Amino acid sequence: MQAPEGDVTIVFTDLQGSTTLWETHPPAMKAAVDLHDKIIRRCYGEHSGYEITTEGDAFQLAFQHPIDALAFALKTQVELHKADWSPEILALDDASEKDGFRGFRVRMGLHHGRTKSRVHDVTRRTFYEGEAVDIAKAMEGICYGGQILTTVETWRAVSGISEQVLGSPQVMDCGEHELDIRQRNEKGPLSKRVVQLVPNELAFDYFAARGREEHPGSKHVRLKKESDVVGRKFAPLKSKNQICASFFDAPYANGKVTIIFIYTKGIDDLPTEIRKNNRQVLAKVVRSLLAQCNPHGYECQEENGSWMLAFGKMAKAVSFGLRLVESTARAPLEGDIDRSKIFKIGVHTGPFTSMGPHTVTGRADYFGPVVNRAARVASQCELGQVLIGIPLPSGETPCTPDFGSKIITKLVGIRKLKGLTVDMALFSCARAPR
Q: Which of 91, 168, 339, 347 is the most buried (most CB within 10 A)?
């Protein structure tokens, strides 16, 4: 196998709890490590991988293309799970069969980027240097056993063909993290948005575990239980610093969520280039305000200035919406526009049927009437307005939401919105005069 050159995907692997495993059962560990090494070498051989070096039970590998590296990582996790581990190994805590794990739990971190390579004086193997190597090692450093982590840039390079080539792995957005390395230009800490991949057949099905089950013709509602679902599930990453929200921060308690839709309409008449620049400015404003929320507001998706956000409480969502409208007055926007009339912001709270990671972005994806209702409420907004929609059963009088003395809510009207089966009481929100 010829050593990859230039832009290379570097992979680091390591075995969770290896010291304890060796201390507990040395004879069984010798045979198990041999099996582990055989599986890794067979899998990287099938995906054009290059073995740079090993250190104990840890491998450092290189691939010319990220699709090969990710295919190797996913295939290896499956093969390790299916391997013929001895009863002595499976009896150990870090190799027992439970919750989608079985046998050795191997951490895998990878990143694709520019590298420099040269031949080692002793081993005569090609080895690599550069930021891409440092980042890949940092990815492995924050991994749990059985987990695959990569950077969002590496994932985006292959996400369009993942279904055909990688077998539709579960993708999860782990947020942006400060890594335990220094940038080579000494500008300060380096941060990367991290993506987790799990082979589909081993993944924990969040959609089956989170949300509410409603039975047609019955008032009985059952809250889904995560304990009913089996599969690989990992705790939030333990990095030096998490900079923005991850999938784990998306609200889901009690099967309810507050959804905000934001439509950027007040810049539509501007020239294309100015409109594009303004959208970038507004995106920074939205994300900055989300990060300032406590707890963080969650960005589900964004496309061409339209946003879907999630909050745990309606009061937090309304406060965010009002702050967003106010913040546009200070934003460095271009063109002749009314800064007070940039957004339409619709808010709705309700139960969701299911939620889990989006198949491509890995961000939290919600399903159920709450999503469509929030979008319909946003479509009813005037420019610069924050509007709440509250479903109104037939014959009932709308009750005005109370968010304290600093926010005024006013009934705009009761409307039957397109596609909805219930009337919606719409309330506008504004800051109370000081």
A: 347
Report whether pLDDT(138) > 80: yes
Cβ neighbors of 80 (< 8 A, separation 6 or more) are: 36, 39, 103, 104, 106
Give the Cα separation of 381 and 210 in Å (integer).
31
Higher pLDDT, 184 or 425: 425
Of 197, 200, 339, 237, the C-alpha closest to 281 is 339
φ and ψ at residue 49, rounded to 5 degrees = -90, 160
Local structure of residue 89 (DSSP, 8 states): H
Residues 6+ positions from 227 with CB-CB distance below 8 Å: none
**Among candidates 370, 358, 20, which has minimal Cα distance to 159?**
358
For tokens 């989300």, the residue is 290
Band the pLDDT of 105: cuts 50, 70, 90.
very high
Instruction: Kindly state the tokens that stand for 235.
Output: 């705790």
| Six-digit token string for 250 | 């998306």
Between CA 387 and CA 346 the distance in angstroms is: 5
Q: How confident is the model at residue 383 (pLDDT cuts 50, 70, 90)?
A: very high
Rounded to 10 degrees, the C-alpha dihedral 259/173/230/85 comes to 180
Using DSSP, how many helices (H) and how many strands (E) does the chain show?
11, 21
Three-state DSSP class for residue 392 = strand
Low-confidence winner among 129-143, 179-193, 295-309, 368-382 (lowest mean pLDDT): 179-193
Nearest partner of 425 among 411, 410, 407, judged by Cα:
411
Segments in 47-174 forming alpha helices (H): 66-82, 87-90, 131-141, 152-156, 162-166
Banded pLDDT at 177 (limits 50, 70, 90): very high
Contact criterion met (CB below 8 Å) for 151 and 139: yes
Written as six digits, the tokens of 148 are 């695959």
